[in-house]
Amino acid sequence: MIYLVLSLYAVILLGFVLTYFFVIYHLAKYSINKKLSAIMLAVFIVISTLLIFSNILLFFAVDWEQLIENLNII
Amino acid sequence: MENFTRFHFAGQKDGEQILKVIHRHWFDILVQFFIVLGMLLVFFLSVIYLPLIFPALRESLGQMLFMFLENLFFILTWFTFFLIWIDYYFDVWIVTDQRIVNIEQKGLFARVVSELELENIQDITTDVKGVIPTFLNYGNLYVQTAAEMERFVFRNIPDPYSVKDMIMNLQKSAENKEENEFGEMLKKKIHHEEV
Facing residues of B142 across strands? Predict the structure, then answer.
């Protein structure tokens, strides 16, 4: 069961990471105003990186085995 | 007149000067941002009220799971915001002293770039329909070309009337320039034949 949770999370995380890189690619390559592009890139990279890392930390902070056990009891 | 010297787009010719960069009207993106605002509302309300309704979410195990899910939802909101912004920001019409370039961003995976030389413009029509567009002065602008291709459309742009005037003036100058060049060429040829 824990592997199912892990693989599901891996898929979600992969989706986020792919979107993250696509957004960065678009902002860096296609922006016609380089100054605005730099500001948007900085904001997006800093906040998204923090959010994704905090999400990974939170995922591993959850005691999934205990949680699944509790669910089985219910 | 605005200064666009810091602007540069892919395919810009040497010496080509950007005269105007037009994005869709802000009201157009505001409607889309209501989705993000709704998501933010759900986020904040759930942070405040869910632990009150379900006390298990205040215990250590439930609390961590709740924080993880809230964080996940916030990332989703953040990315939705940026995807909407990218769709808006990269949908752009660039008017230069030589042509009009339309860059249309459709999601993350589709991008259409089309261009139109100023000399090929035959007719320009503006279309402001509805109460909100009339009050906020935004609407569509259609540019018909000499070729039998489909019309070039500026969708939901702010102040379409002044953009129309600007393009018409540019088209006239481009036409005059072309006529003058043709006249000069004829003069030279006649002079050459006389000699």
Answer: B125, B153
